Backbone:
């Protein structure tokens, strides 16, 4: 039986700059086709705009408030909001609050650095 407790899962920084703890994925469980992580973005910080050619994501906000941008659309997000991010859509999340923005991130297929394409401030892909 695979059970992971967040207290026991080491954090790492993703390619887009968020701090995550991968709770379940192929790296630590029998799960093969998706992953579940807790992500954190500090006050005043944001993830680097990016997209995933293959992966669809769901963000579920647990704590804090922020601004979610997908393509040309931006909305304020808060606890209880679930956000759908389709493959290929440029997205970023910014913490505009005074506490950590904490959210669950579900990825299918599993999160991988090589499936993350960073975008610069001019909208151009940043070479890996």
Residues:
């Amino acid at each position: 039986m695979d059970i992971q407790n967040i207290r026991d899962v080491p954090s790492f920084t993703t390619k887009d700059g968020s701090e995550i703890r991968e709770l379940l994925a192929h790296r630590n469980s029998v799960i093969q086709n998706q992953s579940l992580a807790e992500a954190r973005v500090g006050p005043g910080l944001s993830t680097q705009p990016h997209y995933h050619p293959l992966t669809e994501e769901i963000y579920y906000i647990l704590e804090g408030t922020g601004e979610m941008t997908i393509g040309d659309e931006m909305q304020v997000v808060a606890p209880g909001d679930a956000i759908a991010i389709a493959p290929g859509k440029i997205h970023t999340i910014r913490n505009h609050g005074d506490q950590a923005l904490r959210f669950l991130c579900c990825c299918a297929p599993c999160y991988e650095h090589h499936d993350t394409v960073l975008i610069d401030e001019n909208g151009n892909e940043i070479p890996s």
Notes: The mean pLDDT is 95.
